[in-house]
Every structure is written in structure tokens, then in C-alpha cells.
């Protein structure tokens, strides 16, 4: 017995709602009619917090976030020293004793905090992202606020609140670029790159730590707050000339999709003709006869166009004697 199509609509709607609740499309974010593209901020971004309030040990907490995808595991680091698969926001607390270990040769991982992510297979919690405009909180503000959920640490729910503040002079990727340039300099030892990097980089980081701790409420919850200054959070950036130049236009996508579609059709058709009929050469291609006739058809069509343009039709088909 076939299932009516209309009976599947509720299932499809529920699946689309579920997909939206466990992920976020960085390239197509729309809030209150405003469009944002945060895909340029994709990837691993970190901010470090140094704590010396509990001597004799010192603590360094690294908060790492990927807005657009789960964090990838780092090679060379034990799994127990990293957040589990599906994590979007992670905190790793490391400690050392500067009196006994001034060169930090014996740094220990104290805590691993999965703040937010999709953990349906383990705890059943989802990312459940919530995006809002900063103007909803303050009419003079410009940017976005993104909330990520799903984490649990020490039997306490976790949440990350990231405020992306509009700053037209920053991309938000300065720290990542600075690290890549540093690695390049370490390999090439170029003083010229050092001077260039110093001139281009802002004096303060774009991604900064605000706070982390328990908040008052019905449920016990710890909230991590980060601030991220970037031009991609500006409400007018999507309509700017820079955004249009950086994105592909409709015709570019159309040509690319058409090319891939034709290539897939020819490859599949050739494979089918080879396996079904044992075809070789031109016979492999679907509609091979038509393809071979294209040059001749184009030649005949060009000749007709030239005859029409030359005005031969004005004499009713007769030539002058």
C-alpha cells in the first residue's frame, strides 16, 4: 500500500525543524529581514585566559569556538584532553607550577569543558542555536547575538553566548592570520613580514573573553560569554560592494551547475553505453551522432545567417542577371 504524499508533509516539516535546531547555516543567516553571512568566520578560533589567583599553581583556560561546524580533533593530543565529537564551543583548563616548572615542560590538563554542541548520541542534547540582533537589546548597537546550547559539565548545563559586534575595520580573523604569518616567519625568518604584520594587525584581539560562571535561574547553568568584533556582523555589510564582489553571482552559479550537469550526463551515458552495448570511441557518448554533426549544423546555420544578413531575400529568391 502506497503512502499518500500529503501524509508525509508533517514528517518533512518536523525533519526540517530538527535540522534547524541542531545546526546553523553561517552563509545564510536571516534575522528580522536582515541577511548576514558569517561563513568567513568559519574554522577554529581561540581565546586564552590566564589565572594566577590560586597559587602556587597558575592556570590557563583556552576557549575554542567554531561558529559553522563541529570542532575537529587535534592530532597529537589525547582524546581525554579534548572535547568530544560534535562540540562547537570547548574549554580546556591547563595548569603548571611556575616555581618548579618555569619553562612549562610539565603542563597538565585539569578540566575539559564541552560548553555547546550536538550530543544526541550521548546526552540527547542539541546545539539549539538562537540568533538575534543586538538592536533588540540596544537600539544603538549593531551586530548579532548567537546562543549555543547542549553542553553539560559537572552535572550542570552549559551555554555559550557570543556577541558579534559590528566593526567595519576588522574581519574577525586577525588572530588566525597572525598565527599563520608567524608560522611562515618561523620558516622563512623574514623581517619584512614582521614589519608588515605589525602595521596591519590591530593592537587588541577581535575575539575576547567576557565571563564564565553560573547564572541565576530555575535550572543550574553556567554561561560562557564571548565578544567578537567583525565587519561581517554589520547589518549593512551584506548590501555593500565588498560583499557583492566576494560572493558568486547568479550567472556564475548557473554556468557552474550547468557544466557539472552536462559532464555528469556525458560520463554516466558513456558508462551505460560501454557496459550495455560495448560501445567504443564516439559511440560511447550519448547522442554521439548529434554531437558529431554539431560542427556541420553550425556551419549550415552560419551560412543561412550570412545569406539573410547580406539581403539576398529582397529579390524574392531571384539573382540579378
Automatic annotation (TrEMBL):
It comes from the Eukaryota. Residues 166-201 have a biased composition (Basic and acidic residues). Residues 165-207 are annotated as: Disordered. Residues 24-236 form the MRH domain. InterPro entries: Autophagy-rel_prot_27, Man6P_isomerase_rcpt-bd_dom_sf, MRH_dom. Keywords: Autophagy, Cytoplasmic vesicle, Disulfide bond, Golgi apparatus, Membrane, Mitochondrion, Protein transport, Signal, Transmembrane, Transmembrane helix, Transport. PROSITE patterns: MRH. It is a single-pass type I membrane protein; Single-pass membrane protein. The keyword Ribosomal protein does not apply. Residues 1-21 form the signal peptide. GO terms for cellular component: cytoplasmic vesicle membrane; Golgi membrane; mitochondrial membrane; phagophore assembly site membrane. It is found in: Cytoplasmic vesicle membrane; Golgi apparatus membrane; Mitochondrion membrane; Preautophagosomal structure membrane. This is Autophagy-related protein 27. One of its GO terms (biological process) is autophagy.
Amino acid at each position: 500500500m502506497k503512502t499518500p504524499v500529503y501524509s508525509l508533509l508533517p514528517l518533512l516539516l518536523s525533519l526540517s525543524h530538527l535540522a534547524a535546531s541542531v545546526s546553523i547555516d553561517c552563509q545564510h543567516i536571516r534575522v528580522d529581514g536582515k541577511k548576514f553571512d558569517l561563513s568567513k568566520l568559519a574554522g577554529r578560533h581561540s581565546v586564552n585566559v590566564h589565572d594566577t589567583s590560586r597559587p602556587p599553581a597558575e592556570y590557563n583556560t583556552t576557549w575554542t569556538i567554531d561558529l559553522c561546524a563541529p570542532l575537529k580533533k587535534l592530532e597529537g593530543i589525547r582524546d581525554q584532553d579534548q572535547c568530544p565529537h560534535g562540540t562547537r564551543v570547548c574549554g580546556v583548563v591547563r595548569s603548571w607550577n611556575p616555581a618548579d616548572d618555569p619553562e612549562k615542560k610539565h603542563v597538565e590538563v585539569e578540566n575539559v569543558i564541552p560548553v555547546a554542541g550536538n550530543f544526541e548520541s550521548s546526552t540527547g542534547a542539541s546545539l539549539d542555536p538562537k540568533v538575534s540582533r543586538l538592536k533588540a537589546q540596544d537600539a544603538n548597537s549593531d551586530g548579532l547575538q548567537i546562543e549555543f546550547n547542549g553542553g553539560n559539565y559537572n552535572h550542570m548545563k552549559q551555554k555559550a553566548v557570543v556577541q558579534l559586534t559590528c566593526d567595519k575595520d576588522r574581519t574577525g580573523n586577525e588572530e588566525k592570520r597572525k598565527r599563520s604569518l608567524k608560522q611562515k616567519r618561523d620558516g622563512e625568518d623574514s623581517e619584512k613580514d614582521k614589519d608588515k604584520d605589525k602595521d596591519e594587525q590591530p593592537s587588541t584581539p577581535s575575539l575576547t573573553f567576557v565571563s564564565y560562571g553560573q547564572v541565576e535561574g530555575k535550572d543550574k547553568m553556567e554561561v560562557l560569554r564571548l565578544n567578537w568584533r567583525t565587519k561581517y556582523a554589520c547589518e549593512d555589510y551584506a548590501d555593500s560592494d565588498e560583499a557583492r564582489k566576494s560572493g558568486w553571482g547568479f550567472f556564475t552559479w548557473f554556468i557552474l551547475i550547468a557544466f557539472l550537469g552536462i559532464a555528469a550526463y556525458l560520463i554516466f551515458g558513456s558508462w551505460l553505453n560501454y557496459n550495455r552495448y560495448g560501445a567504443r570511441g564516439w559511440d560511447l557518448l550519448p547522442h554521439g551522432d548529434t554531437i558529431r554533426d554539431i560542427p556541420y549544423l553550425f556551419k549550415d546555420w552560419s551560412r543561412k545567417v550570412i545569406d539573410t544578413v547580406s539581403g539576398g531575400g529582397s529579390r524574392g529568391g531571384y539573382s540579378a542577371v
